[in-house]
Structures
1.
Amino acid sequence: MTEAEILQAAEQVEGVPVTEAEVGTVTLAEFEQVKQERDQLLDRMARMQAEFDNARKRDAKERTEFREFAVGSSVEQILPVLDNFQLAMKAQGSPEQFREGVELILRQMEEAMKQLGVQKVETIGTQFDPRFHEALGSIETTEHPDHQVLEEVRAGYRIKERLLRPALVRIAVNHAQTEA
């Protein structure tokens, strides 16, 4: 290898111009060692990039599989309720028998929700809490404290502290308390 080739190669490896005086101090063996180290680092970097891409793909696949498993577990809890609704629709009986059947299905659905960790948001008799309740209207009264929930229009649900749906409620407005 000529001095000019060594100069050019050294500039490519380090990215810094090398003077002819410095070329004399760099031996061909040292240059080859630096070049080999560079090649090893480039190979290592390419492998790490491939490992990172594989880990990202594996994580996305595991998330999808977990989501499918969670949905499957939930649906397994609800399938018997669906079966009973279908049987109720085919049933021939009195309105009272039909109502009793629907009440049984409702209890079965509430139990399935309980098994899934879903809890009903407390409403009637509690103070209005905008984190869990959505006020649909108000009822003027002097018998109940101001902002107490008097009526539940639609139930709200949560899993632990995560709100799935707020409860729609009507709240008390007690002017005697607000003016005092």
Note: The two ends are 99 Å apart (CA to CA).
2.
Amino acid sequence: MKTLKGEQLFLRALEPSDLDFLYNLENFEKLWEVSNTTTPFSKYILKKYLSNSHRDIYDVKQLRLVICKNEDESQVGFIDLFDFDPKHKRVGVGIVIFSEEDKRKGFALEALNLTCNYAFTHLNVHQIFAGITEDNQGSINLFEKAGFEKSGVKKDWIFSEGNFKNEYFYQLIPNS
């Protein structure tokens, strides 16, 4: 699919062979804050998730894509479309590049741009939104570089490590 292929990487649907990568990522506690997770996932549960990942975004309101390098097809992360609302023509987006060695190489920006293009072109959305905690400067920089604008603040929205954090609400609305 041309829409999901870039210069450095491509995005693809989940495969059963992604189980170990998904297991490691979903059980990495540092990511639980942004994924609203508080308990580990078993491989059994993740296998069931993978077996249902083929379901249509219009049915389940979400789509998870694997971010892979063009050169060797290795996985570097995931990008998710969630809370898809075809009536109001909007969808949320979240992204994670898992390995420190794969960060700051432009993968996240390229994957985000490819995903936004896909959502506008194939899902016919009017806007894409994201929630970013106030202390996640890397994500703030990424989304602003991709053209997202901060349009609001959810005060004391995320409770993490005994403290509340604000979450910024970002939107990408072309021609607004």
Note: The chain has one domain: 2-172.
